[in-house]
Amino acid sequence: MEAMKKRYSAKEFDPSKSISSENMRNIEALLQLAPSSTNLQPWHFIIAQTDEGKKRMARAAEGLFIFNKSKVLNAAAVVVFATKTDISEEYLQHLTDREDQDGRFAQGNFKTDNHNGRKMFVDFHKFDYKDVQQWAEKQVYLNLGSFLLGVAALDIDAVAMEGMDFQALDDEFSLNEKGFSSCVVVALGYRAPSDFNAALPKSRLDVAEIIEHV
After folding, report:
1. CB atoms < 10 A from the CB of 38, how many?
2. What are the residue numbers of the active site?
3. In the prediction, which pLDDT does 118 show?
4. Count of alpha carbons within 13 Å of 16, Cβ hemisphere only?
5. Whole-structure pTM value
């Protein structure tokens, strides 16, 4: 609750401050350990800490999205969240083999049952609902939610940005060729003293308005 109450969307970062190596490892762990439906993990991440890396990402914050350029350039680190564009049988088998390697299956038949169950859900979205990439992107946003709370618990400020040219990001990092498409960018670091949003109170709808008990 402490992290949830204190986190906010940083609007201005102090470019003189960096994230420690230990916390960068924690950031990678947050991305790796996030939950996803059927443990699908349909994601890929690009992290920029160098000036050159952030400049490459900032190419997606031009024109209409220029308001986000300084956030990208002044952040201590920037993370691109990308979604798998296809869920292949080979990928599903790769997941199952990794789970087996990690000791997830107490009995041999559990491995087959788990694989078939996950494939059933993927096939629902691939052939019946025809929204497999959108469904995969929902899993990426599950990661995003836990990530924002996690970095807040590390006392790292963050802002999630959809105001980016994602086709430019895909092209810059050859994401489509790798089987992914970018969907959201998170800038990380430490707020500048001049960040107006840091001092503003949170504004949320009342509990009684959004929660119904039955």
Report:
1. 15
2. 11, 71, 162
3. 98
4. 2
5. 0.97
- For residue 42, the number of C-alpha atoms closer than 13 Å in the C-beta half-sphere is 29
- Tell me which residue of 140, 149, 146, 155 sits closest to 189, measured CA to CA: 155
Residue 90's identity, in one-letter code, is E
Longest dimension (CA), the chain: 59
Using CA atoms, how far apart are residues 190 and 167, in angstroms rounded to an integer? 28
| pLDDT of amino acid 174 | 98
pLDDT tier, 196 (very low <50, low <70, confident <90, very high otherwise):
very high
Q: In this predicted structure, what is the pLDDT of residue 160?
A: 98
